[in-house]
Amino acid sequence: MSQVFKTIVIDDEPAARRLMKSLLQEHKDVIDVIAEAGSGKEAIQKIEELKPDLIFLDIQMPDFTGFEVIERLSQKPNIIFTTAYEQFAIKAFETFSIDYLLKPIKEERLHQAIEKLKQFGRLNQAININSLQDIIRQIQAPPKTTALPIKTGDRIILLRFETIVYFEAQDKYVFVFTADGQKHLTDQSLTSLEEKLPPQFHRIHKSHIINKEKIKEMHRHFNGRYLFVMDDKLNTRLTSGRTYYDPIRMEFGL
To answer: Which residues, 6 or more positions from 113, have their beta carbon under 8 angstroms from its beta carbon?
Structure first.
Protein backbone atom coordinates (compact mmCIF):
# COMPACT_ATOMS: atom_id res chain seq x y z
CA MET A 1 0.00 0.00 0.00
CA SER A 2 1.43 3.38 -1.01
CA GLN A 3 2.11 6.15 1.50
CA VAL A 4 -0.54 8.84 1.95
CA PHE A 5 0.98 12.32 2.09
CA LYS A 6 -0.65 14.90 4.37
CA THR A 7 -0.67 17.98 2.16
CA ILE A 8 -1.10 21.76 2.40
CA VAL A 9 -1.89 23.83 -0.72
CA ILE A 10 -0.30 27.30 -0.58
CA ASP A 11 -1.19 30.02 -3.07
CA ASP A 12 -2.28 33.65 -2.67
CA GLU A 13 -4.94 33.22 -5.40
CA PRO A 14 -8.13 31.47 -4.16
CA ALA A 15 -8.93 30.27 -7.69
CA ALA A 16 -5.51 28.61 -7.96
CA ARG A 17 -6.05 26.84 -4.63
CA ARG A 18 -9.47 25.61 -5.72
CA LEU A 19 -8.05 24.29 -8.99
CA MET A 20 -5.20 22.49 -7.24
CA LYS A 21 -7.51 20.86 -4.71
CA SER A 22 -9.84 19.80 -7.52
CA LEU A 23 -6.95 18.23 -9.46
CA LEU A 24 -5.72 16.46 -6.34
CA GLN A 25 -9.10 14.79 -5.90
CA GLU A 26 -7.94 12.32 -8.57
CA HIS A 27 -5.05 11.31 -6.32
CA LYS A 28 -6.86 10.76 -3.01
CA ASP A 29 -5.11 7.44 -2.59
CA VAL A 30 -1.81 9.31 -2.23
CA ILE A 31 -2.67 12.95 -1.36
CA ASP A 32 -4.69 14.00 1.69
CA VAL A 33 -5.23 17.79 1.62
CA ILE A 34 -5.42 18.78 5.29
CA ALA A 35 -5.26 22.58 4.90
CA GLU A 36 -4.66 25.52 2.59
CA ALA A 37 -2.95 28.89 3.02
CA GLY A 38 -3.26 32.18 1.14
CA SER A 39 -0.07 33.91 2.29
CA GLY A 40 3.46 33.17 3.39
CA LYS A 41 2.73 33.98 7.03
CA GLU A 42 -0.32 31.73 7.11
CA ALA A 43 1.68 28.99 5.38
CA ILE A 44 4.45 29.09 8.00
CA GLN A 45 1.94 28.92 10.85
CA LYS A 46 0.03 25.97 9.38
CA ILE A 47 3.15 24.03 8.39
CA GLU A 48 4.64 24.39 11.87
CA GLU A 49 1.33 23.43 13.49
CA LEU A 50 0.17 20.59 11.22
CA LYS A 51 3.58 19.21 10.09
CA PRO A 52 2.48 18.07 6.61
CA ASP A 53 4.41 15.54 4.52
CA LEU A 54 4.00 17.63 1.38
CA ILE A 55 3.27 21.22 0.36
CA PHE A 56 2.37 22.71 -2.99
CA LEU A 57 4.06 26.10 -2.69
CA ASP A 58 3.46 29.18 -4.83
CA ILE A 59 6.68 31.12 -5.43
CA GLN A 60 5.31 34.66 -5.65
CA MET A 61 3.06 35.82 -2.81
CA PRO A 62 2.42 39.33 -1.45
CA ASP A 63 4.31 38.93 1.83
CA PHE A 64 6.96 36.19 1.44
CA THR A 65 8.30 34.35 -1.58
CA GLY A 66 8.04 30.59 -1.46
CA PHE A 67 11.78 30.46 -0.78
CA GLU A 68 11.43 32.82 2.19
CA VAL A 69 8.72 30.53 3.57
CA ILE A 70 11.12 27.57 3.37
CA GLU A 71 13.86 29.53 5.11
CA ARG A 72 11.61 30.20 8.10
CA LEU A 73 10.56 26.57 8.64
CA SER A 74 12.07 24.56 11.48
CA GLN A 75 11.27 21.31 9.63
CA LYS A 76 10.94 21.06 5.86
CA PRO A 77 8.31 18.82 4.21
CA ASN A 78 8.38 17.61 0.63
CA ILE A 79 7.94 20.63 -1.64
CA ILE A 80 6.44 20.95 -5.10
CA PHE A 81 6.71 24.55 -6.30
CA THR A 82 4.09 26.19 -8.51
CA THR A 83 5.14 29.07 -10.73
CA ALA A 84 3.99 31.07 -13.74
CA TYR A 85 7.57 31.89 -14.76
CA GLU A 86 8.01 29.24 -17.43
CA GLN A 87 10.98 30.72 -19.29
CA PHE A 88 13.30 30.56 -16.32
CA ALA A 89 11.72 27.93 -14.12
CA ILE A 90 12.36 24.93 -16.34
CA LYS A 91 16.14 25.33 -16.39
CA ALA A 92 16.49 26.58 -12.81
CA PHE A 93 14.41 23.99 -11.02
CA GLU A 94 15.72 21.07 -13.03
CA THR A 95 19.24 22.22 -12.17
CA PHE A 96 18.43 21.86 -8.47
CA SER A 97 16.43 18.64 -8.91
CA ILE A 98 13.38 20.28 -7.38
CA ASP A 99 9.94 19.41 -8.64
CA TYR A 100 7.76 22.22 -9.88
CA LEU A 101 4.50 22.78 -11.74
CA LEU A 102 3.98 25.53 -14.29
CA LYS A 103 0.73 27.50 -14.19
CA PRO A 104 -1.83 26.83 -15.53
CA ILE A 105 -1.28 23.39 -14.05
CA LYS A 106 -1.91 20.44 -16.33
CA GLU A 107 -3.30 17.13 -15.03
CA GLU A 108 -0.61 15.11 -16.81
CA ARG A 109 2.24 17.14 -15.29
CA LEU A 110 0.70 16.91 -11.80
CA HIS A 111 0.43 13.13 -12.26
CA GLN A 112 4.15 12.98 -13.12
CA ALA A 113 5.08 14.93 -9.98
CA ILE A 114 3.02 12.64 -7.77
CA GLU A 115 4.46 9.52 -9.42
CA LYS A 116 7.94 10.87 -8.72
CA LEU A 117 6.97 11.44 -5.10
CA LYS A 118 5.57 7.90 -4.81
CA GLN A 119 8.69 6.43 -6.34
CA PHE A 120 11.29 8.25 -4.28
CA GLY A 121 9.24 8.99 -1.15
CA ARG A 122 11.25 12.10 -0.50
CA LEU A 123 11.93 15.11 -2.75
CA ASN A 124 14.50 17.91 -2.44
CA GLN A 125 16.06 16.59 0.77
CA ALA A 126 18.92 19.10 0.79
CA ILE A 127 17.67 22.51 -0.31
CA ASN A 128 20.32 25.21 -0.72
CA ILE A 129 18.43 28.30 0.36
CA ASN A 130 21.04 30.77 -0.91
CA SER A 131 21.00 29.21 -4.36
CA LEU A 132 17.20 29.26 -4.42
CA GLN A 133 17.17 32.92 -3.47
CA ASP A 134 19.53 33.62 -6.36
CA ILE A 135 16.95 31.98 -8.61
CA ILE A 136 14.09 34.13 -7.40
CA ARG A 137 16.11 37.31 -7.96
CA GLN A 138 16.47 36.38 -11.60
CA ILE A 139 12.81 35.67 -12.13
CA GLN A 140 11.06 38.65 -13.64
CA ALA A 141 8.84 39.50 -10.72
CA PRO A 142 6.49 42.47 -10.98
CA PRO A 143 7.94 45.72 -9.59
CA LYS A 144 7.42 46.23 -5.88
CA THR A 145 4.96 48.86 -4.76
CA THR A 146 6.69 51.53 -2.68
CA ALA A 147 3.81 53.82 -1.77
CA LEU A 148 0.15 53.84 -0.78
CA PRO A 149 -2.16 55.98 -2.95
CA ILE A 150 -4.51 58.24 -0.96
CA LYS A 151 -7.36 60.02 -2.75
CA THR A 152 -8.11 63.56 -1.61
CA GLY A 153 -10.72 65.12 -3.87
CA ASP A 154 -9.31 65.19 -7.40
CA ARG A 155 -5.75 64.58 -6.17
CA ILE A 156 -3.95 61.36 -5.36
CA ILE A 157 -1.22 61.54 -2.71
CA LEU A 158 1.42 58.82 -2.62
CA LEU A 159 2.42 58.03 0.95
CA ARG A 160 5.81 56.27 1.00
CA PHE A 161 5.66 53.12 3.11
CA GLU A 162 8.70 54.21 5.13
CA THR A 163 6.75 57.29 6.35
CA ILE A 164 3.70 55.29 7.52
CA VAL A 165 3.70 54.37 11.22
CA TYR A 166 0.35 52.59 11.57
CA PHE A 167 -3.18 52.12 10.25
CA GLU A 168 -6.22 52.40 12.47
CA ALA A 169 -9.84 51.39 11.88
CA GLN A 170 -12.33 53.78 13.47
CA ASP A 171 -15.98 52.82 13.02
CA LYS A 172 -16.42 52.42 9.24
CA TYR A 173 -13.26 54.30 8.34
CA VAL A 174 -9.55 53.45 8.13
CA PHE A 175 -6.91 56.12 8.77
CA VAL A 176 -3.21 56.18 7.97
CA PHE A 177 -0.88 57.84 10.49
CA THR A 178 2.55 59.07 9.42
CA ALA A 179 5.72 59.80 11.42
CA ASP A 180 5.17 63.57 11.25
CA GLY A 181 1.81 63.24 13.02
CA GLN A 182 -0.41 63.58 9.96
CA LYS A 183 -3.61 61.58 9.54
CA HIS A 184 -5.04 60.46 6.19
CA LEU A 185 -8.26 58.68 5.27
CA THR A 186 -8.02 55.62 3.02
CA ASP A 187 -10.89 53.87 1.28
CA GLN A 188 -9.32 50.43 1.81
CA SER A 189 -10.22 48.08 4.66
CA LEU A 190 -7.63 46.75 7.11
CA THR A 191 -8.15 43.24 5.75
CA SER A 192 -7.48 44.43 2.20
CA LEU A 193 -4.42 46.38 3.34
CA GLU A 194 -3.11 43.40 5.30
CA GLU A 195 -3.03 41.36 2.08
CA LYS A 196 -1.34 44.06 -0.03
CA LEU A 197 1.15 45.74 2.30
CA PRO A 198 4.85 44.78 2.24
CA PRO A 199 6.19 42.46 4.98
CA GLN A 200 7.34 45.23 7.35
CA PHE A 201 3.66 45.78 8.23
CA HIS A 202 2.03 43.50 10.79
CA ARG A 203 -1.47 43.35 12.22
CA ILE A 204 -1.52 43.50 16.02
CA HIS A 205 -5.22 44.17 16.66
CA LYS A 206 -8.51 44.02 14.79
CA SER A 207 -8.18 47.81 14.54
CA HIS A 208 -4.43 48.25 14.01
CA ILE A 209 -1.70 47.40 11.53
CA ILE A 210 1.75 48.73 12.44
CA ASN A 211 5.02 49.32 10.62
CA LYS A 212 7.58 47.10 12.38
CA GLU A 213 10.35 49.48 11.32
CA LYS A 214 8.63 52.29 13.27
CA ILE A 215 8.51 50.53 16.65
CA LYS A 216 10.46 52.42 19.32
CA GLU A 217 9.71 50.10 22.25
CA MET A 218 7.76 46.93 22.89
CA HIS A 219 6.50 45.83 26.33
CA ARG A 220 4.66 42.82 27.67
CA HIS A 221 1.19 43.84 28.77
CA PHE A 222 -1.40 42.01 30.86
CA ASN A 223 -3.82 39.32 29.62
CA GLY A 224 -1.62 38.13 26.75
CA ARG A 225 -1.18 41.53 25.16
CA TYR A 226 1.78 43.64 24.07
CA LEU A 227 2.23 47.41 24.25
CA PHE A 228 3.93 49.05 21.28
CA VAL A 229 5.44 52.53 21.57
CA MET A 230 5.74 53.88 18.05
CA ASP A 231 8.50 56.08 16.68
CA ASP A 232 6.41 59.04 15.60
CA LYS A 233 5.95 62.66 16.62
CA LEU A 234 3.41 61.68 19.30
CA ASN A 235 5.14 58.54 20.64
CA THR A 236 1.86 56.74 19.97
CA ARG A 237 1.13 53.77 22.25
CA LEU A 238 -0.83 50.88 20.77
CA THR A 239 -1.96 47.73 22.58
CA SER A 240 -2.29 44.42 20.76
CA GLY A 241 -5.40 42.26 20.82
CA ARG A 242 -5.41 39.01 22.83
CA THR A 243 -6.07 36.87 19.76
CA TYR A 244 -2.90 38.24 18.14
CA TYR A 245 -0.61 37.03 20.94
CA ASP A 246 0.75 33.93 19.16
CA PRO A 247 1.19 35.57 15.72
CA ILE A 248 3.07 38.46 17.37
CA ARG A 249 5.33 36.07 19.24
CA MET A 250 6.09 34.22 16.01
CA GLU A 251 6.63 37.41 14.02
CA PHE A 252 9.06 38.92 16.54
CA GLY A 253 10.69 35.70 17.69
CA LEU A 254 9.50 36.05 21.30
So the answer is: 80, 99, 101
Q: Indicate the CATH number for domain 5-138.
A: 3.40.50.2300
- Name the segment(s) of the chain with CATH classification 3.40.50.2300: 5-138
Sign of CA dihedral 63, 64, 66, 70: negative
The backbone torsions φ and ψ at residue 43, rounded to the nearest 5 degrees and listed phi first, read -60, -45
Closest CA to 161 of 170, 150, 153, 173: 150
pLDDT tens over the chain, length 254 residues = 568 899 999 999 898 999 999 999 999 999 999 999 999 999 999 999 999 999 999 988 888 888 788 888 888 888 888 877 665 555 555 555 457 787 778 888 899 888 888 876 665 555 555 665 566 555 545 556 788 999 888 888 899 999 999 999 998 899 999 999 899 999 889 988 988 888 889 999 999 999 999 999 999 888 889 999 999 999 999 999 988 888 888 888 77
pTM as predicted = 0.51
Where does the chain hold its CATH 2.40.50.1020 domain(s)? 147-252
CB atoms within 10 A of CB 130: 8
DSSP designation for 162: G
Regarding beta strands 100-102 and 5-10, do their DSSP bridges make them parallel or antiparallel, or are they unpaired? unpaired
Query: Which CATH superfamily does the domain covering 147-252 fall into?
Result: LytTr DNA-binding domain (2.40.50.1020)
